[in-house]
Amino acid sequence: MDDNIVSTDRLTKRYGDHPAVDQVSLSVRRGEVYGFLGPNGAGKTTTLRMLLGLVRPTGGTASVHGLAPGSPDALRRTGSLIEGPGFFPYLSGLENLRVIARYRGLGRRDADEALERVELTSRGSDRFRTYSLGMKQRLGVAAALLGRPDLLILDEPTNGLDPAGMASMRSLIQSLSDDGQTVLLSSHLLAEVQQFCHRVGVIVGGKMAYEGTVSELRGSRVLRLHADPIDRAMRVLKGATASGADLADDEDGRPTLTADARGVDIPALIRELVAEDVDVHSVSVNERSLEEVFLTMTEAK
Ligand SMILES: Nc1ncnc2c1ncn2[C@@H]1O[C@H](COP(=O)(O)OP(=O)(O)OP(=O)(O)O)[C@@H](O)[C@H]1O
Questions:
Q1: Structural fold of domain 4-217
Q2: For the CA atoms of 121, 170, 164, 37, what is the dihedral angle to 10 degrees?
Q3: Domain boundaries, the chain
């Protein structure tokens, strides 16, 4: 059985001469949370809209549940939240869900369940217009969950939320994932997405720049060294690594040596620095933050 719920092959959308989405190939596997990441205007929404049959591609192919995007069967098995759901402000959260449920041929119980799933039951009888943005977004996810779709497509579900709203959306997505729900979500906020995405795809200027796990994306671990005198420390560090070392100021303006940490024997390095009469102030080995990697990737384009 094909484990890809979504796959695209060189999917393209041109508006006039402008390719909004340029030969994007991606795959979302069953049961994973896939983060579709990229700066504003990168082509995320256009791609997601193509996956829902809302925008017609000008090139390439896409399949959702092995079916044509937008076909009735594909849509029945897909829940989505794109560009804010249209809710009635004067109806309660629950009434809104019931309206949508009825429209889709589902029962009141489905609406109750969906509300429960996003932990809004206690506010279910309050009017929608009194909800915070975070609650509105969670109600949007509840609407997407109606009918228990195999796949959830969420466009920027944390956009505009305050830290508490973000945390609550994050834990909701995490708990859906724990239940085995496949989620494809877009975001331009890398740092918060890296915490719960199994894999990510990065799109920049309409083109796919990367697809894989977060740890692969971050790549190798980085050794950072503060020492004095720095030129002598640089010489020792270069001798200890195969791939050389760099000198730059860190965010506090301190001269910092960095190098690929792979294969470096840290205790031996420190012994050698001391033997060369270098004062070692600190040595650390860290993964690069996703933000750093992302910036490098978008700047390189
Ligand atoms: N209907 C349209 N007609 C012309 N250009 C469009 C249309 N829709 C999108 N675009 C352009 O396509 C590009 C990608 O837009 P898209 O909304 O997909 O990006 P995005 O990554 O979702 O950005 P954001 O995070 O700002 O929503 C942008 O340059 C946008 O101006």
A1: Rossmann fold (3.40.50)
A2: -130
A3: 4-217, 219-300
